[in-house]
Write a structure and sequence with these properties.
2 strands; two-stranded antiparallel ribbon; 3% strand; 64% helix; 4 helices; mainly alpha
Length: 187
């Protein structure tokens, strides 16, 4: 196996880190914008929506790319539960990366408060057609968005912890496969 076949493609690496940084920013915006003491909360809400839409679009592109490009194999010697956890984590991230923006979009589309969405205050983004403006429905989407957001934080911490465990304890190439600047000698 060559070093290139043991690493994710440059496109996959770029999308991974771009989406990851946006998700971390979305989490920070989400915490700040729900705090009544935060100044410019409206602007944060608008940025949150804009970056959420970007994550949705980039995640769909990433999924399409992933379906056409096989990722590198997991290291040999991983326990069956570790392989299952790795696969489940990746599926969960795709569900979150696509599902969370859809939930946010559904929340604002069903809100009784009509505030037009403009991506980065420029490009108008429509509401989901046919979704009724109803507080009870909007609240369901809001609660799902909130609690899955908290679950996302836990999943990120587990993902980072597993990557570090592979790098520090197992001393394998799992982390090097996704970091653009880290090359392991065994690659």
């Amino acid at each position: 196996m060559t070093a290139d076949t043991m690493r994710y493609s440059k496109v996959a690496i770029g999308l991974h880190w771009l989406i990851a940084l946006m998700i971390i920013g979305l989490i920070i915006f989400g915490i700040l914008m729900t705090n009544p003491d935060t100044p410019n909360r409206f602007a944060l809400y608008q940025l949150h929506k804009s970056f959420g839409i970007c994550v949705l679009i980039l995640s769909v592109l990433r999924l399409i790319w992933r379906l056409g490009h096989k990722p590198p194999a997991l290291p040999q010697g991983m326990k069956a539960w570790e392989v299952a956890a790795a696969k489940l984590t990746h599926v969960a991230f795709y569900v979150i990366m696509i599902g969370m923006p859809l939930l946010g979009w559904a929340m604002i589309s069903s809100s009784e408060t009509v505030i037009p969405t403009k991506i980065f205050n420029t490009l108008p983004w429509p509401d989901i057609p046919g979704l009724p403006r109803d507080k009870a429905i909007s609240d369901i989407f809001k609660n799902l968005h909130h609690w899955i957001g908290k679950g996302t934080i836990v999943l990120i911490l587990l993902h980072v912890g597993a990557a570090l465990k592979h790098h520090i304890v197992n001393k394998d190439n799992v982390l090097a496969r996704m970091l653009p600047f880290l090359r392991k000698s065994r690659l």
